[in-house]
Amino acid sequence: MTQSDAEQLPRFPFETPAALEPPAQWAEFRDRCPVGRVVLASGDEATLITRYDDVRAVLSDPRFTRPTPHDDAARVADTESGGVFNSEMATVIPQHGPAHLNWRRMIGKWFTAKRMNALRPGIAAMAEQLIDDMVAKGAPADLKASLAFPLPVWVICDMLGVPDADRDRFAHWSDVMLSMTRYSQAEFDQAQAEFGRYMGGHIAAKRAEPADDILSALIADTDADGESWSDALLAATGIGLLIAGHETTANMIAKMVAMLLADRTRWEQLLADPSLVRTAVEEALRTDANAGVGMARYITEDFEVAGTVLPSGTTAMCSMAAANRDERAFEEAAEVDLSRSPNPHLAFGAGAHACLGQPLARTELQVTLEVLLRKLPTLELDVPADELRRVEGLAVGGLRELPVRW
């Protein structure tokens, strides 16, 4: 593809008219071009998949996995290496086959329904404390900085056994590693190295003095072949869990609350019937209009999608957010229905790489919403919804802040 060809292709992710509104191109691609060509922030071309059944099929196919630095895949970021999917972390963590399944099995033990239920009281207590602190400082307030960000950071830090007090450093390193256009290659390399040294220090400390946390358990555990994990794999896993465990959930808490307050009849509906919290959380996940870049898959053999054959070597960008608004899969898909059930959305992906932490994310979203409804029933946006500002230049979507009053 020549440079002029790339310049003619639409840039993905698409720009949106407002932080809570989906880009018009999602519907256009689903209807007219379900397997379309786009150009990423890097300038590389990729194939965009937008229909529900097609996205689910590509994500669920065990032959295809996340691009690795060894693949000649399209780069998501505009840096030389291509961003987090091409990082040392992505190289060290096994991406497919028995090794990947074993890695997921060992991590997955920490995200069972039983463990999540045991965490709920502590999450609720922390949410109440953060809300009390926010209220004490007076309205208006930034709900993202006051609640949506510190809560999931505290939870994942507690699970990993790393100090919550370092959360601003985690936030900076995460932003740099998730950058598409915001940071340089040198800044990426520095953040990755600093994060790696930080996590390496904690792993050494856990070896000396184990505690009841994920890192200590992984150090002590052995895999199915009776082998212990290397320090490199332990560090990459810790970094991956810290990034995923706070960045996406922090953004989703703020987006969920914003969506519910943008049309305050939704908030009133939940106040009248708090039993809708669980289905409301799922609908917020489904209708997220600002979800980020989606999931990349590297196609290693010819593969047919919606009547189009993707040749081997194609990078497929699966837009779960576009798929979640597909009328073929969801009745009145553009409408927010807080009681929608079933709701088989793809916000957490599908197949062998579906989000490991989704039980934790759901728990945090549900508990936060329950506590907010109980403690701040008069909560409302402090700016018009169309003035909310979205996070720019990262692989994940979010709001820069969420101004509220009560």
Automatic annotation (TrEMBL):
It comes from Kutzneria buriramensis. Coiled coil: none annotated. This is Cytochrome P450. Keywords: Heme, Iron, Metal-binding, Monooxygenase, Oxidoreductase. CDD domains: Cyp158A-like. GO terms for molecular function: heme binding; iron ion binding; monooxygenase activity; oxidoreductase activity, acting on paired donors, with incorporation or reduction of molecular oxygen. It comes from the Bacteria. PROSITE patterns: CYTOCHROME_P450. Transmembrane segments: none annotated. Belongs to the cytochrome P450 family.
